[in-house]
Each structure stands twice: as structure tokens, then as C-alpha cells.
Write a structure and sequence with these properties.
With 59 residues, the protein is mainly α. It contains two helices and no strands. It is elongated.
């Protein structure tokens, strides 16, 4: 008697969707959806030096 190997339709569908999403992301179509850009501006007054911290700890 020969056994048939049955692949679940749900597992096959999830695998195809995952591979498709990875290929779309790799090709750049979904690149903006998964990219986060951090824009920051630092002023001179915002910078804390180690000397400032140690002086404050000694007070």
C-alpha cells in the first residue's frame, strides 16, 4: 500500500504568502513600510559631558 503525502492547504498558503512578502520587501516595493528613519537635532545646550555629570555628583 502506497502512502500519499498530503500538504495542508493552509500551510502551503502561509508559505507562499511569506515568500511573496519577503521577495516584495527585498525588491524594494515594501522597503518603506519596514524602514524607520530617525531624525534628530542636537543643540550645544543639549550635550552633557562626563565632567558635568561628575561635578554634579560631587555637589
Amino acid at each position: 500500500m502506497e502512502l500519499s503525502r498530503h500538504i495542508s492547504f493552509a500551510i502551503l498558503t502561509i508559505a507562499v504568502m511569506t515568500v511573496s512578502a519577503l521577495l516584495l520587501e527585498h525588491s524594494g516595493v515594501l522597503a518603506r513600510a519596514f524602514r524607520t528613519e530617525i531624525l534628530a537635532r542636537v543643540n550645544d545646550g543639549d550635550v552633557v559631558k562626563a565632567a558635568d555629570i561628575s561635578n554634579a555628583a560631587l555637589r
